[in-house]
Specification:
EC number (chains A, B): 2.3.1.274
CATH superfamily of the domain at 1-118 and 285-330 in chain A: Isopropylmalate Dehydrogenase
Shape of chain A: globular
Strand content of chain A: 15-25%
Pfam family, one (chains A, B): FA_synthesis
Low-confidence stretches of chain A: none
Organism (chains A, B): Campylobacter vicugnae
Largest interface: A-B, 63 and 63 residues
Strand order of the largest sheet of chain A: 3-2-1-4-11-10-5-6-9-7-8
Order of helices and strands of chain A: EHEHEHEHEEHEHEEHHHEEHH
Structural class of chain A: alpha/beta
GO molecular function, one term (chains A, B): phosphate:acyl-[acyl carrier protein] acyltransferase activity
Radius of gyration of chain A: 20 Å
Helix content of chain A: 40-55%
InterPro entries (chains A, B): FA_synthesis, Phospholipid_synth_PlsX-like
Oligomer: homodimer
Chain lengths: 330, 330
């Protein structure tokens, strides 16, 4: 049984949604959940019939969201530190945390270590498209705000491996996010990256922001500054549209009835664009599997983050990244 | 009567939608429209009762979308060149073009000239928010892909002036687009820009992508690379949501009925987020008024672009920009 280390207390809402997500995941498949946190508290949340799938690991501290990421290296009694340590010592195969994401990255990079040839790990996230069951992987979405062309090249290799090994796409299409599709478009850094990416058979060239959602490309490469902005912009647009519709429906009894008839449509839409469907973002380029979840994760998000960790653990993604890197003489 | 030079043939769909937009604008208010293009063609499109508001200016060539922007300087017989020339010679107060946007920028910068103290003009665009009648101005959205901190500072001054003079906001709130709200967030360039922007009373600090749409800030500053990506990402999300809803409605008769009852809601939403409601983006930082419209502009977009040109021409925005710049010792 695969063993997954779960930072059970690092999120914004404490242990409850995390443990509920673990139980929901266990209802769908078997794995061994290492829950790191206040054992008394955690034990009270586990129904008897699931206790054989749980290993409790005591940790007395929670690393707070407003602390400086690198300070986590000194916080050996914190839930996130102990969770990563379980992976470093090979007790567990993967770690899932909804805690301080900078702290998770620091621990992953410095305690687990980077893959050979990767200078900067990146956070990858799946974005919904208009094509059913088709997602677009975007990286980096926040680990590295200032990138060089070489970093973007590495992101491409990592994204390719993820698409192939985890998303099971035979010939993933890689695109470089730019301000136009033409080869000549881009800023100084993406233009340099374009020249490096041309070596990759999977590279289809520059892509534009709207292509994230149309399914025309499988992996989109950008720096973490742009990636963070596009993620929040996307959430903002989706949230604004929902809000405008809700405000406007309220004003008309006929529209209220219409919205009732369209309930299934809106529910389907919500599922299709819902962050909880992915639940977490893998940190690519480190030696083990680290899944970073949102601090405000729901049980559903945690459940899906665990499924991501399981898929990752069962794959050969890190081998594929290493093999691909040796193919290309940067 | 304010005279507006209109590149009547530069858009993707030829003269028809442009002229239709001009007529629609004339139905709402009086101005003198200088239509630049093939006069025989254009005359045939003008209803008799509007002819007294039209001045025809013959131009034999159209500068094509796939030509290199700077080549336009040699194309003195092109519609866009002649349109800008009418402003340069002070015959007209403003120019509206749905033609090659790079060519419009080159002509504006090199023939009309930059405002004193502005090293890079920027394209500004209005974005919808969830608050009725409240828009957010975003700049730059494409004129400058590589920016220095000084450029972002100038964009802030120009955006402030636009918000005050055109949007009529008494105390505009300026935000710097970043990967987090905290002061410490940003890439190398935005961090430097942050330090410069602190001098401005109107500066509220870093803002995130979702704040474009919530009405919490009036002007958002970014470089043209990020601005272009966020614009296309926003269009992409809105388009994807519309498509998912449409696809899903089709599958259920009840939902079709519901959508019928919600027709007013969807129409209102469309109006609120529709690009055509703004119709064009002003190029800020040049000595006169240049409104850049999308090549695929509808008559409605052209009409609203003309209204933008009229508002701009009646304002003191360029004076305000110059005054504000002298206030701050960069």
């Amino acid at each position: 049984m695969i063993k997954i280390a779960i930072d059970a207390m690092g999120g914004d809402f404490g242990a409850e949604p995390i443990v509920a997500g673990v139980i929901d995941a266990l209802k769908q498949r078997e794995f061994q959940a290492y829950l790191i946190g206040d054992n008394n508290k955690l034990k009270s949340l586990i129904p008897q019939e699931y206790s054989r799938f749980i290993t409790f690991v005591q940790a007395d501290e929670v690393f707070a969201m407003d602390e400086s990421a690198t300070d986590v290296l000194k916080r050996k009694e914190s839930t996130i530190y102990k969770a990563v340590e379980l992976v470093r010592t090979a007790e567990c195969k993967a770690v899932v945390s909804a805690g301080h994401s900078g702290a998770s990255m620091s621990l992953a990079t410095l305690r687990l270590g980077r893959l050979k040839g990767i200078s900067r790990p990146a956070i990858a996230t799946l974005m919904p498209t208009t094509q059913n069951n088709k997602k677009t992987l975007v990286l980096d979405v926040g680990a590295n705000v200032d990138c060089k062309a070489e970093n973007l090249f590495e992101f491409a290799i990592m994204g390719y491996a993820y698409a192939k090994e985890i998303m099971k796409i035979d010939n993933p299409r890689l695109g470089l996010l730019s301000n136009g599709e033409e080869d000549c478009k881009g800023n100084e850094i993406t233009k340099d990256a374009f020249d490096m990416l041309k070596k990759l058979d999977s590279f289809i060239g520059n892509v534009e922001g709207n292509q994230i959602f149309d399914g025309s490309v499988d992996v989109i490469i950008c720096d973490g500054f742009v990636g963070n902005i596009l993620l929040k912009t996307s959430e903002g647009v989706a949230g604004a549209i929902t809000k405008i519709i809700k405000q406007s429906v309220k004003k008309s009894p006929l529209a209220i009835l219409g919205a009732f008839f369209m309930k299934g449509v809106f529910k389907g839409l919500k599922n299709q664009i819902d962050y909880d469907e992915y639940g977490g973002a893998p940190l690519l380029g480190v030696k083990e599997c680290v899944i970073i979840s949102h601090g405000k994760s729901s049980p559903k998000a945690i459940k899906n983050a665990i499924f991501q960790a399981l898929k990752f653990s069962e794959s050969n993604i890190n081998e594929v990244i290493s093999n691909e890197l040796t193919k290309y003489d940067k």
